[in-house]
C-alpha cells in the first residue's frame, strides 16, 4: 500500500520513524491497526501552525485538520473533548460542542493545560495518543478528506492520513455540523 502524500512533503512510514512523533503518539500508533496507512513528514517547526505551513508547503487549507481541545463542567465534573475540524472551518463551541459535552459553558483548554495533559507540543497536538478519558469529536467534513495533515504531537513533523481513518481512532465520534465554514 502506498503511503499518503501531499504536495512537496516527503512522506515517511510513521511505523519506521516513531522518533519523529511525541511519545504518547508513538505508543498509540504502535497499537493502532491503521498505522501502516499513516505517513509522517518533517517540517520546519517555526511554521508548524496551519496557515503558515499551508502557505510554505503550497497545501490547500482544506487539506489540514486541527485538533482543538475544549472543556466544560457539569455537576463539578470536568469534561474534555478533542475536536477535529477542517482547517478552513470554525468549531461550533458555543452550541454543538456545549450540547455534546452537556455543559453550561464550553471553553478552549488553556495552552499550558493542553500541552501538560496531552504530553504534546502546542501546534502539534493530535487526536492520536490523547488520554482515553477525553472524547474525540470528528467533524464529518474531515472524514471526507482524501489526505489530511494533522499534528504529530511535536512541531517538527505532521502526520498524513486519510480523513476516514480519523473516524477509526479509538472512541471517535463523527459529528455532522461540528464546524462551519466562516461567513464573509
UniProtKB/TrEMBL annotation:
<dbReference type="InterPro" id="IPR036754">
    <property type="entry name" value="YbaK/aa-tRNA-synt-asso_dom_sf"/>
</dbReference>
<dbReference type="InterPro" id="IPR007214">
    <property type="entry name" value="YbaK/aa-tRNA-synth-assoc-dom"/>
</dbReference>
<dbReference type="GO" id="GO:0002161">
    <property type="term" value="F:aminoacyl-tRNA deacylase activity"/>
</dbReference>
<protein>
    <submittedName>
        <fullName>Cys-tRNA(Pro) deacylase, prolyl-tRNA editing enzyme YbaK/EbsC</fullName>
    </submittedName>
</protein>
<dbReference type="Pfam" id="PF04073">
    <property type="entry name" value="tRNA_edit"/>
</dbReference>
<feature type="domain" description="YbaK/aminoacyl-tRNA synthetase-associated">
    <location>
        <begin position="45"/>
        <end position="167"/>
    </location>
</feature>
